[in-house]
Amino acid sequence: MLKLDEPVEVDETYKNAGRKGGKKRKDSRKRGRKGRGRGTYAKDRPPTFTIYGKDTGFVIYKTTRKTTNNVARRVIRAHVKPNNEVHTDEYRIYNRLGRSYKHKSVNHSAGEYVKDGVSVNGAEYANQRFKEFYISKRGVSKKYLDGCSAMATIWVNTTTMMPKGSFLRLIYWLVIKTFKNSKMG
Fold it and tell me: Which of 24, 110, 119, 152 is at 20 to 30 A from 161, Cα to Cα?
Protein backbone atom coordinates (compact mmCIF):
# COMPACT_ATOMS: atom_id res chain seq x y z
CA MET A 1 0.00 0.00 0.00
CA LEU A 2 1.15 3.49 -0.84
CA LYS A 3 2.45 5.44 2.18
CA LEU A 4 3.59 9.04 1.93
CA ASP A 5 6.77 9.92 3.81
CA GLU A 6 6.45 13.70 3.80
CA PRO A 7 4.35 16.45 5.40
CA VAL A 8 0.73 16.04 4.30
CA GLU A 9 -2.52 17.98 4.33
CA VAL A 10 -5.73 16.08 5.09
CA ASP A 11 -9.26 17.27 4.39
CA GLU A 12 -12.60 15.65 3.70
CA THR A 13 -15.20 16.30 1.05
CA TYR A 14 -18.74 15.08 0.55
CA LYS A 15 -20.23 14.25 -2.84
CA ASN A 16 -23.81 13.31 -3.66
CA ALA A 17 -23.93 9.63 -4.56
CA GLY A 18 -27.14 7.66 -4.40
CA ARG A 19 -28.43 4.36 -5.70
CA LYS A 20 -27.67 4.92 -9.36
CA GLY A 21 -28.39 1.75 -11.33
CA GLY A 22 -29.60 -0.08 -8.23
CA LYS A 23 -32.84 -0.69 -6.39
CA LYS A 24 -35.23 2.26 -6.69
CA ARG A 25 -36.71 4.05 -3.70
CA LYS A 26 -40.37 3.68 -2.86
CA ASP A 27 -40.67 7.35 -1.98
CA SER A 28 -39.84 9.95 -4.56
CA ARG A 29 -36.32 11.30 -4.19
CA LYS A 30 -35.63 15.00 -4.03
CA ARG A 31 -32.69 16.19 -6.11
CA GLY A 32 -29.53 16.64 -4.12
CA ARG A 33 -29.08 16.82 -0.39
CA LYS A 34 -30.83 19.85 1.04
CA GLY A 35 -29.93 19.52 4.73
CA ARG A 36 -27.16 21.45 6.41
CA GLY A 37 -24.07 19.89 7.89
CA ARG A 38 -21.81 17.05 6.88
CA GLY A 39 -22.97 14.17 4.79
CA THR A 40 -23.08 10.47 5.65
CA TYR A 41 -23.37 7.25 3.69
CA ALA A 42 -26.97 6.80 4.89
CA LYS A 43 -27.89 10.29 3.60
CA ASP A 44 -26.42 9.51 0.14
CA ARG A 45 -23.46 11.81 0.68
CA PRO A 46 -20.48 9.66 1.74
CA PRO A 47 -17.27 11.32 2.93
CA THR A 48 -14.06 11.14 0.91
CA PHE A 49 -10.77 11.87 2.65
CA THR A 50 -8.14 13.73 0.64
CA ILE A 51 -4.48 13.27 1.55
CA TYR A 52 -2.18 15.72 -0.23
CA GLY A 53 1.63 15.40 -0.08
CA LYS A 54 3.09 18.87 0.42
CA ASP A 55 6.49 18.05 -1.12
CA THR A 56 5.50 15.88 -4.08
CA GLY A 57 1.95 17.08 -4.71
CA PHE A 58 0.80 13.44 -4.73
CA VAL A 59 -2.91 13.05 -3.90
CA ILE A 60 -4.74 10.07 -2.39
CA TYR A 61 -8.55 9.83 -2.14
CA LYS A 62 -10.27 7.37 0.19
CA THR A 63 -14.05 7.11 0.50
CA THR A 64 -15.49 5.82 3.77
CA ARG A 65 -18.94 5.23 5.23
CA LYS A 66 -18.59 7.75 8.07
CA THR A 67 -16.30 10.33 9.63
CA THR A 68 -15.17 9.45 13.14
CA ASN A 69 -11.89 9.68 15.04
CA ASN A 70 -11.16 6.01 14.40
CA VAL A 71 -11.94 6.16 10.69
CA ALA A 72 -9.79 9.28 10.19
CA ARG A 73 -6.87 7.72 12.08
CA ARG A 74 -7.20 4.47 10.12
CA VAL A 75 -7.18 6.28 6.77
CA ILE A 76 -4.20 8.45 7.71
CA ARG A 77 -2.30 5.53 9.23
CA ALA A 78 -2.85 3.51 6.04
CA HIS A 79 -1.43 6.23 3.76
CA VAL A 80 1.03 8.32 5.84
CA LYS A 81 4.11 7.05 7.65
CA PRO A 82 4.22 7.85 11.40
CA ASN A 83 6.09 10.89 12.75
CA ASN A 84 5.29 13.02 9.70
CA GLU A 85 3.55 16.39 9.93
CA VAL A 86 -0.20 16.22 9.29
CA HIS A 87 -1.99 19.51 8.63
CA THR A 88 -5.78 19.56 9.07
CA ASP A 89 -8.59 21.95 9.85
CA GLU A 90 -10.14 22.08 13.34
CA TYR A 91 -12.71 19.34 12.69
CA ARG A 92 -12.81 17.26 15.89
CA ILE A 93 -12.18 13.90 14.18
CA TYR A 94 -8.52 14.91 13.82
CA ASN A 95 -7.98 15.66 17.53
CA ARG A 96 -6.26 12.36 18.39
CA LEU A 97 -3.65 12.41 15.62
CA GLY A 98 -0.98 13.91 17.89
CA ARG A 99 -0.03 10.50 19.28
CA SER A 100 1.48 9.15 16.05
CA TYR A 101 1.96 12.29 13.98
CA LYS A 102 3.06 15.90 14.36
CA HIS A 103 -0.45 17.32 14.09
CA LYS A 104 -0.96 21.00 13.24
CA SER A 105 -4.24 22.64 12.37
CA VAL A 106 -5.86 25.86 11.18
CA ASN A 107 -9.18 27.20 12.38
CA HIS A 108 -11.29 28.24 9.38
CA SER A 109 -14.15 29.54 11.54
CA ALA A 110 -11.74 32.06 13.11
CA GLY A 111 -10.62 33.22 9.66
CA GLU A 112 -7.34 31.28 9.67
CA TYR A 113 -6.41 29.75 6.33
CA VAL A 114 -2.63 29.86 6.73
CA LYS A 115 -0.97 30.00 10.13
CA ASP A 116 2.79 29.59 10.66
CA GLY A 117 3.16 27.65 7.40
CA VAL A 118 0.21 25.37 8.20
CA SER A 119 -2.62 25.21 5.69
CA VAL A 120 -4.95 22.74 4.01
CA ASN A 121 -5.29 24.76 0.81
CA GLY A 122 -3.59 22.06 -1.30
CA ALA A 123 -6.00 19.41 -0.02
CA GLU A 124 -8.97 21.70 -0.63
CA TYR A 125 -7.82 22.28 -4.21
CA ALA A 126 -7.46 18.49 -4.59
CA ASN A 127 -11.07 18.18 -3.33
CA GLN A 128 -12.15 20.35 -6.25
CA ARG A 129 -10.20 18.13 -8.65
CA PHE A 130 -12.04 15.10 -7.20
CA LYS A 131 -15.39 16.76 -7.82
CA GLU A 132 -14.28 17.69 -11.34
CA PHE A 133 -13.43 14.04 -12.02
CA TYR A 134 -16.67 12.85 -10.45
CA ILE A 135 -18.83 15.20 -12.56
CA SER A 136 -17.38 13.74 -15.74
CA LYS A 137 -18.77 10.33 -14.70
CA ARG A 138 -22.35 11.68 -14.55
CA GLY A 139 -22.97 10.20 -11.16
CA VAL A 140 -21.78 7.04 -9.46
CA SER A 141 -23.60 4.74 -7.09
CA LYS A 142 -22.40 5.23 -3.53
CA LYS A 143 -21.54 1.55 -3.38
CA TYR A 144 -18.91 2.09 -6.12
CA LEU A 145 -17.65 5.47 -4.92
CA ASP A 146 -14.51 4.00 -3.31
CA GLY A 147 -13.47 2.53 -6.69
CA CYS A 148 -14.25 5.89 -8.27
CA SER A 149 -12.02 7.61 -5.71
CA ALA A 150 -9.19 5.18 -6.57
CA MET A 151 -9.58 6.08 -10.26
CA ALA A 152 -9.64 9.77 -9.32
CA THR A 153 -6.35 9.28 -7.45
CA ILE A 154 -4.71 8.01 -10.65
CA TRP A 155 -6.37 10.67 -12.83
CA VAL A 156 -5.39 13.62 -10.62
CA ASN A 157 -1.81 12.43 -10.17
CA THR A 158 -1.27 11.88 -13.90
CA THR A 159 -3.02 15.00 -15.26
CA THR A 160 -1.37 17.58 -13.02
CA MET A 161 1.95 17.46 -14.86
CA MET A 162 3.50 16.92 -18.25
CA PRO A 163 3.23 13.37 -19.69
CA LYS A 164 6.88 12.54 -19.03
CA GLY A 165 6.60 13.73 -15.43
CA SER A 166 3.40 11.78 -14.80
CA PHE A 167 4.99 8.62 -16.21
CA LEU A 168 8.05 9.06 -14.00
CA ARG A 169 5.85 9.77 -10.97
CA LEU A 170 3.88 6.55 -11.52
CA ILE A 171 7.07 4.53 -11.99
CA TYR A 172 8.51 6.02 -8.80
CA TRP A 173 5.47 5.27 -6.66
CA LEU A 174 4.62 1.88 -8.15
CA VAL A 175 8.09 0.39 -8.57
CA ILE A 176 10.69 2.14 -6.44
CA LYS A 177 8.52 2.71 -3.35
CA THR A 178 7.13 -0.84 -3.57
CA PHE A 179 10.67 -2.24 -3.84
CA LYS A 180 11.88 -0.20 -0.85
CA ASN A 181 8.87 -1.24 1.26
CA SER A 182 9.23 -4.94 0.41
CA LYS A 183 12.98 -4.84 1.04
CA MET A 184 12.58 -3.23 4.48
CA GLY A 185 9.66 -5.22 5.78
Answer: 119
Q: What's residue 26's pLDDT?
A: 54
Q: Residue 106 falls within a domain, yes or no? A: yes
DSSP string, 147-164: HHHHHHHHHHHHHSS-HH
Burial state string for 34-71 with b = 16 or more CB within 10 A and e = fewer than 16? eeeeebebeebbbbbbbbbbbeeebbbbbbbeebeeeb
Crossing angle for the helix pair 163-171 and 145-159, to the nearest 10 degrees: 120
Q: In one letter, which amino acid is 171?
A: I
- Contact between 27 and 96 under an 8 Å Cβ cutoff? The reply is no
Give the pLDDT band (50/70/90) at residue 51. Answer: very high
CA distance 44 to 17: 5
The verdict on residue 72 lying in a domain is: yes
65 lies in a domain? yes
Per the structure, the complete domain to which residue 96 belongs is given by 8-18+39-120+140-184
- Quote the number of domains for the chain: 1
Residue 105: per-residue pLDDT: 86
CATH number at residue 91: 3.30.420
For residue 111, being part of any structural domain is answered with: yes
116 by Cβ neighbours in 10 Å (0-12 / 13-18 / 19+) ranks as exposed
Beta-carbon count within 10 A of 22 CB: 11
